[in-house]
Each structure stands twice: as structure tokens, then as C-alpha cells.
Sequence to fold (200 residues):
Amino acid sequence: MDFTELKKNLERNGFQVSVFEDACSAAAYLNSAIDGMTVGMGGSVTIQQMGLYKMLASHNSVFSNADTPGKTREEISREAQTAEIYLSSVNGISVSGELINIDGTGNRVSAVQYGHKKVYLIAGCNKVEKDFETALYRARNVAGPLNAKRLNRKTPCAVKGDRCYDCDSPDRICRGLSVLWKKPGGCEYEVVLINEDLGY
Ligand code: SF4
Fold:
């Protein structure tokens, strides 16, 4: 995928942008850029596929719901919320330069908006859509159902992972929405674009 237009629009929206051909080079870059810091991360398949927890935990204090041993999810989430660095993937990103995340607990949608020194938003090329509406559609109808299926949720979308049914299930994972139209003022942001399919 050619990221030229997307990169230009993200930069116009105030985001720093780096582009990599594969997950391995992006992970090596992040591993060299983040050193001696406290680092929070949510439950992202992209981050898991990149092997970032193991890499970063050898020289940073990393708080990850999916990986950090010896603490409750609540403790990890609270420490991740106040970490200097936060790493998240995105559920959808538009070529026009908007970044979209949907969340069940609220930790990810709040963490990408405020509270850190720097936020890295990591996106494989499968997350890219042409405009805001199609990126939002993707977040709701592709990322949501596939994540519900992965997490074995009792939701209508998890049966086939085909589309969102806007369910009222107690197991619903879509409860909050974050849209970054422009870089928020509270911290630094870097969008890491990777020319590989990653996550959902
Ligand atoms: S709102 Fe419900 S049906 Fe729609 S994607 Fe989320 S969990 Fe699935």
C-alpha cells in the first residue's frame, strides 16, 4: 500500500508519522525509541503479533493486560493509564487522517486521548479506509465482530464475525468510541504505519 497521502494528511493533522514495510522493522524501531520508561498497553492483537511486550519489558517497566504477571487486570490498567508511554493499535484509520478506536472497558479510548508523555498508535495496512465514514464502519463492522469472536463473547456478531448487530448483550465489547481528528494538545503522538496486515 502507498501511504503517501495518509502520511501527508496525518502530518497536516499534527501527528508525527513513521512508515515501515514490515512489523519486524517497526518493532525494532519502537524498541530503540522507548528505553527506561514506564509503558502502558491495552489488549491489542497488533501489539501481540509484533512481540512488543517481551522486547520492551527487558529495558522498560511495561503494564499490559495481556502479559504483565503477578497483578490483577485492574492494577495493570491503572498503572498503564499513568505510564509515560502508551502503545495502542487502532480499529480504523482514514486516508483523510482520522484515527478511530472502540472499546469495552474504556481504558484504551481514554488512554489514547490524555495522560501520557507520548502515545504511539500502530496500524497495519488492513486498518486503512478511504474516509472517516468507512473507517468508522470498519471499526464497528470488522474490528468489533472479529474481536468479539476472538474473545468468545456471547454476542450475535461473534457467531460468524460478519457484522455488527448493535447488540444489547451484557457481553457487548463496543461501549466507547475515540476519534482523533487532530493531535490532542496534552501529549506527543506518533502514528506507526506498517505495510502488513496486523490485528483486526
Ligand atoms: S455492538 Fe455488539 S454486535 Fe456490534 S460489534 Fe459490538 S459486540 Fe458485536
